[in-house]
């Protein structure tokens, strides 16, 4: 590459133009970050069997049956989901959680409880179970799914709010799930 | 009179041959996929991605290089630009767009306004700026950059390197599924990347050889980024299928028409320059 000599005024003009172009990129990226944040924080309300909640705007909703009320699933990562269940049980939350874990382990022999402990979430007493299982049903290589169950006492039973996600993404999914969990309200008798 | 006419006729034939070659390439991939139903190891997947990405890259590179008939750019310099484009995509473009901004994680499931705006501000601006920067801060002051249309030739070469990396990433990340439709996507992505870069190169070339205001280059970058965003918005419907199967293919067709129209505009512009400077 042989460089050529450029008149000084033209050189100055071209340098200014280059600086302006770089500034334009920086402004665009800053605004783009704003769009990303707005989209990722956007939610939409959902109402199902007496439950109301705010779920991420683009997520898919599937109605449930029996104890399982509904689930919301991330369309871009189908193993990332929030599930709402209402277990018709009374008594201590740790006992309800233990019974539920046993039942799940009987259905799925890859299911493992990692931790289980009482919590206070958004000012309400509850119980938290973290678990892992192997997803054998999705296409491709089997992978570990991790999740959390939050148990809260309600008038008609025990409300269980669950998060499931690929084990590599569960930490990133947690803040969104906690925001969702805070938005869930239940009106009994509907 | 006879010389230029023959030259244009030869160019036309070469262009038709390029299109036919790309159609054959797509058909061959469909045929091979159906006949062999290949299972990939990580190594064979990367090799397959590389081979599949190289074919449209070479054909489109030749397509744009042929336009510069008056004083063809040195081949080694054009190839260096291809390599620079691939390096910039790998080192900055993909990590910024897919990593820092996590675009695959949210953009395509966003509302239409966010897809267009996010596509423009993040994907379009980053990709088109890198193509601009590759030429502006390397060959721009070289003696070989001696015509306005050289801007188009060099930026399209950078874009083809950029598309090469995007296409290899696409095959590897998809795990080699649906290679046939993937081949269509790769042919189109390479053309689109080259045509948007051509818009940047058009503004860059004019900036160098004509007195242009300060906002000229930012305007070119903005226009190219907007076209980039519109293309991916239209083509995105192929992946999402949210508008139904018919509109899915309509989206792909519209994206192809958009890329084709820009390419036609660029070819016309080069033709015009050649006529003015005595090529025809």
Brief overview:
The complex is a heterodimer of chains A (190) and B (280). Chain A is an alpha+beta fold.
Looking at the structure, what is the overall shape of chain B? globular
Count the E strands of chain B.
0
Q: Hey, roughly how much beta strand do the residues of chain A contain?
A: 35-45%
Number of helices of chain A: 3
Unreliable segments of 5+ consecutive residues of chain B? 238-246
Q: Topology as H/E string of chain B? A: HHHHHHHH
Largest sheet of chain A: 7 strands, antiparallel
Structural class of chain B comes to mainly alpha
Distance between the termini of chain B: 8 Å
How would a textbook summarize the main sheet of chain B? none
Total helical segments of chain B: 8
* Element string of chain A (H = helix, E = strand): HEEEEEHEEEEHE
Name the helicity range of chain A: 25-40%
Could you characterize what this model shows?
The complex is a heterodimer of chains A (190) and B (280). Chain A is α+β, with helices and mostly antiparallel strands and 190 residues long. In chain A, 33% of the residues lie in helices and 39% in strands. Chain A is built from 3 helices and 10 strands; from the N terminus they run H-E-E-E-E-E-H-E-E-E-E-H-E. Chain A has helices at 8-41, 93-107, 170-183; strands at residues 43-48, 51-56, 60-63, 68-73, 81-87, 112-121, 124-135, 143-154, 157-166, 185-186. Chain A has a 7-stranded antiparallel beta sheet with strand order 3-4-5-9-8-7-6, sandwiched between helices. Chain A has a 3-stranded antiparallel beta sheet with strand order 1-2-10. Chain A is elongated and about 85 Å long. The mean pLDDT of chain A is 90. Helix content of chain B is 80%, strand content 0%. The longest helix of chain B has 35 residues, at 2-36. Chain B has helices spanning 2-36, 42-67, 75-100, 112-136, 150-174, 179-209, 216-240, 245-276. Chain B is mainly α. Classes of the chains: A alpha+beta (190), B mainly alpha (280). At the A-B interface, helix 1 of A face helix 4 and helix 7 of B.
